[in-house]
Amino acid sequence: MSALVTSGGFTGSDYGTYASVVVNPVADDEGGKKRSGYHWSASRHYADLEDSQAVGEEAARRTIAQLGAKKLPTQELPVIFDKDAARSILGLFAGCVLGGAIWRKSRVPSLVSLPDVCLAERFGGRAPT
Predict the structure, then answer these.
(1) Average confidence (pLDDT) over 18-47
(2) 0.70 cut: is pTM over it?
């Protein structure tokens, strides 16, 4: 059960279910560095979860992909986030930009990032033009 009570007088509650499976393997890399990756599946219903073996295999693949990682020299490069990181970053960004403004019923500022920041979704391996 979850409940919400606000100072404005709203009171509400809801019942529901939530199930998840999370795998976070850790591997030793050169020099004793620990590398880890993760993968998860979540749903309102247990039967809708991704197969636990598939979750484990994806988590292992992500961990193994980090083995042998090296630091790059300082440089300006485009940054590409995987879908989980992008979802999290954009969700936080949207909450910061929109949440307070909606709550205060004020307008959203027209400039929310530097002019050279570009967000693009990848379609078929290429960003839209």
Answers:
(1) 93
(2) no
